[in-house]
């Protein structure tokens, strides 16, 4: 303690060392700054482009929260949701990560995944818990963009899956909806992706995807038909009930096949258009595109000829009746009934080119010159249904394909019911030509003679009257015969009682001499 | 150059040992009792405080901008920043929780940084030495309470690990935030409040409270 300086003694000058050099502690803020810069750089480097997507509704989309996923990998977040200027939709702004940059191609598909119940089943169940998210399916195009229009329905088939995209046109959707399967021999060959109604044409357009395994089965002449529901057919060979798979029964389905007897046909390109038939039988009934219309003028009645009735060549279907209606045409003074038919030339000659109708028309022109004529024939005597039959006549009156009101007119002959009618008339004519009057006169004379004979017969019969002499004689004879018979009975009675009386006679009477008759 | 108040121990060449608090002449160089180095004031006090405070300010931005925790559950990933969490609690009506988190995680670190900066400035100017000393006391006391957030994250990460069902991971924000809190605590520790009085004595020697 003695070493301690006291305040009363000489004050000690403390050694004040001013540290002029930079303290090593400054490394800490430098490290902090570097760390902060590194974090900031990391944050900005991870930021990719910002995109805007237009949707109909922002249901389930929350700014700052809803993630953007590509195959369940997070590639961004929704930053803002706002209404479009025209209030017709919402604009969703998304901040993408840097690795998402090359996914944002021009044809990328973006949709909202939320719980849905549709024909393709239940989807997006996990989003009930996690909340909706936005899914992105990268495109294949070269060009990229930053503004998209979102899909309202998730695409059924992911982009980039190898296969064939085709379009169907159908008269009615018939239970086919996006997600409906395309079935080939009971196997799932693809799916319907889109369904759009065209108010202009009144047809339903269906976009479909066929997986690559089945794509090569689709040919130019392949027919597609609806297998939704149950197809019941009653025919000569009985009752047919056809159903597709349970799935197609519930959600509709389409199947396809080659027409019977059709040869090979070229494969189709992506995006080809097909007609969708209502049933398998319709594929046979209807005529494909590329058919040629022809007008038939019938002078007889066309009762029993309906629309869609077949046009046949010797029993082979080559076309369809398209319309039967009577319109008075000045060029048609005979008041023949015009019948419009469609003939599919490819069913007559398979090697005809289908891209132009000219060769087919020429083919028919030649056939008409060679004797091809149309006629109405009865397909069913029960119902009186008619069909149009085309056939070559043996020695026809020369005719050519004429033109009427812009239609090509095939020459017709009356046949079928008309022919039958003619034959009946001929028979009736023959009956009329018979000499009926003379016959009747002869017959009346013969009747007179018969009458005379009858009268004399009557006179003869009159002789047998009660007062007639013959009757008197006859009754006397009968009386005598009666007496005789009575005495004979007495005799037999006596004989019964006394058989010996035949020898000895009645008692009391002198026996007749031996051997005398009784 | 009279840097110390005439009544102070330093003016008489006495220094308090940092370790065993033995007052001994600074000339000796080392504490006669525990043999640690003697300094009149904490070594490079203001410089160190500045450096640590600046580092804390730098890290304060990532601490608030980056998520403090990432919640991974079957319902999807969820990241939350401190402010985001406060807003979420507030919107859900949990006002007390929101206020506590806001106070502990946003207000206190900011106030701490501001008061440390004020102390550093006061050690130069020497104005309001009494108030500054009180600020110093409060700053040192509340410093550790800012760690609430970090503790919560640490506990959650440790406890909530249910495999794929739900799990919580600390985010870069939590690390930055912990660094901010630790740096401000060190900054407060490295500050020597006696410097305020030294500066006050230098600027206004008359208006000094005399030692009892």
Q: Proportion of β residues of chain B?
A: 5-15%
- Looking at the chains present, what oligomeric state does this protein adopt? heterodimer
The residue ranges of chain B in which pLDDT falls below 50 over 5 or more consecutive positions are none
Question: What is the number of strand segments of chain B?
Answer: 5
Shape of chain A: elongated
Counting DSSP H or I runs of 4 or more residues, the number of helices of chain A is 10
Q: Quick one: biggest sheet of chain B? A: 3 strands, antiparallel
Helix content of chain A: 10-25%
Radius of gyration of chain B: 22 Å
End-to-end CA span of chain B: 25 Å
Strand content of chain A: 25-35%
The secondary structure category of chain B is mainly alpha
Would you kindly provide a written description of the structure presented here, covering whatever features stand out?
The complex is a heterodimer of chains A (518) and B (212). Chain A has helices at residues 27-46, 127-130, 212-215, 246-251, 280-285, 358-369, 417-433, 436-462, 469-497, 501-504, and strands at 47-55, 67-70, 73-83, 90-97, 109-113, 116-118, 121-123, 133-137, 147-149, 163-170, 181-184, 187-198, 203-211, 223-226, 230-235, 238-243, 254-257, 272-277, 292-298, 310-313, 316-324, 337-343, 372-380, 385-392, 402-404, 407-410. Chain A is of the alpha+beta class. Chain B has 212 residues and is mainly alpha-helical. Chain B is built from seven helices and five strands; from the N terminus they run ββαββααααβαα. Chain B has helices at 45-65, 82-91, 95-125, 129-142, 148-159, 172-190, 194-203, and strands spanning 14-16, 23-25, 69-73, 76-80, 166-170. At the A-B interface, helix 1 of A face helix 1 and helix 6 of B.
